[in-house]
């Protein structure tokens, strides 16, 4: 394989880890021998995850295998993202369509569609669950009959505990920052700088340090056609693919100049002309599309928090298991009223609104409660 400078360095790093477990790797029968680096990475990753005999590994070799897997996943993300430098719009949409199933694209698009009406809604006016969905943090209180998606798609912020504490306490401060970003039309450097001032000000008086990743999540949900969200774990692959020096989690100025401005000049971004309804969906969120070029495999969809909640084992007794998560009355009322707005709900069930709210407040799902009411009252 003829490799460029970046690819060669990645290749050497992978070989360093592979050498430590070379005998174990040699014991795996390999029939597919890709001639391209991306295919080689996929094949070796499959070997390291699914075909190597873990029973024959010593304890000290397990971290080496994990490191090898992480390097290969990062390499695959880098190589796929790198194609965005020159790829035209049809090639980008074709890649996304081909990877639709393993990337759980339908679920990801449900998140975007759910948040679409809220892009201009003040955070302080949202119920807590909607605020979690907008800001990218999963919680057990997210009713799967309402939130039919993992809210952590497109950059999870679950590790930004200080940010979420401030968002709970002072949502209006973040509203002031987001108000600087127009809901439609061009977004300029001046708009972004005003947001940056407001966002940093939200942390004044707090011991928490403002970090970039959660800020980009808010921006991306406000304007998914302009801002690409980042996470610390995937930032290295993105920066390498864009050909820029790696940002740290407080490089607010470079985020605009190196990421937003760079992506805006890419061929697929400038020529985004939808040919059908599917492409129209993607064109509306074109700044999010790099997120769909990170590595995904058969485990990606099942690792979704939504999938896990749907397939969570039911408790069989009164003891053990997790405690039911109660909801605030305001959240319960909003969720129930949304469900009762469905024209298929009969009037005698709507008349039981207060009883339904009380059950949802206790932690029962909206659909389950309405179904129970239908069973009881016919």
Offer a few descriptive terms.
378 residues; mainly alpha; 20 helices; 0% strand; globular
The 3D shape can be described as globular
Radius of gyration: 23 Å
Look at the helices and sheets and give the structural class. mainly alpha
Query: Which ranges are low-confidence, i.e. pLDDT below 50, for 5 or more consecutive residues?
Result: none
Give me the number of helical elements.
Answer: 20
Mean pLDDT: 91
Q: Secondary-structure element order, as H and E?
A: HHHHHHHHHHHHHHHHHHHH
Instruction: Specify the biggest β-sheet.
Output: none
Oligomer: single chain
Percent strand equals under 5%
Strand tally is 0
DSSP helix fraction = 55-70%
Distance between termini? 68 Å
């Amino acid at each position: 394989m003829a490799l460029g400078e970046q690819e060669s360095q990645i290749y050497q790093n992978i070989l360093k880890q592979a050498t430590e477990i070379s005998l174990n790797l040699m014991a795996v029968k390999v029939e597919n021998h890709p001639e391209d680096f991306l295919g080689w990475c996929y094949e070796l990753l499959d070997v390291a995850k699914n075909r190597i005999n873990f029973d024959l590994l010593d304890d000290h070799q397990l971290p080496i295998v994990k490191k090898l897997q992480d390097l290969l996943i990062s390499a695959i993300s880098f190589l796929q993202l790198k194609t965005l430098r020159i790829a035209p719009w049809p090639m980008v949409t074709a890649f996304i369509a081909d990877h639709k199933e393993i990337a759980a694209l339908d679920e990801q698009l449900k998140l975007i569609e759910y948040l679409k009406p809220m892009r201009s809604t003040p955070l302080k006016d949202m119920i807590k669950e909607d605020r979690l969905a907008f800001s990218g943090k999963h919680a057990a209180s997210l009713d799967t009959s309402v939130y039919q998606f993992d809210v952590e798609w497109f950059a999870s912020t679950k590790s930004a505990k200080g940010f979420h504490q401030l968002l709970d306490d002072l949502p209006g401060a973040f509203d002031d920052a987001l108000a600087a970003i127009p809901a439609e039309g061009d977004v300029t450097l001046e708009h972004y700088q005003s947001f940056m001032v407001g966002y940093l000000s939200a942390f004044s008086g707090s011991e928490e340090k403002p970090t970039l990743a959660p800020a980009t999540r808010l921006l991306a949900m406000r304007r998914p056609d302009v801002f690409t969200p980042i996470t610390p774990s995937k930032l290295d692959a993105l920066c390498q693919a864009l050909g820029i020096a790696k940002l740290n989690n407080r490089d607010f100025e470079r985020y605009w100049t190196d990421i937003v401005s760079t992506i805006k000049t890419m061929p697929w971004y400038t020529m985004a002309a939808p040919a059908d309804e599917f492409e129209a969906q993607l064109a509306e969120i074109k700044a999010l599309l790099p997120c769909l070029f990170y590595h995904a495999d058969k485990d990606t969809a099942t690792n979704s928090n939504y999938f896990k909640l749907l397939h969570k084992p039911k408790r069989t007794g009164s003891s053990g298991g997790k405690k039911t998560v109660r909801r605030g009355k305001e959240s319960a009322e909003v969720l129930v009223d949304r469900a009762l707005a469905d024209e298929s709900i009969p009037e005698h069930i709507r008349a039981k609104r207060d009883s339904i709210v009380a059950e949802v407040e206790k932690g029962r799902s909206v659909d389950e409660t309405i179904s129970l009411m239908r069973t009881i009252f016919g």
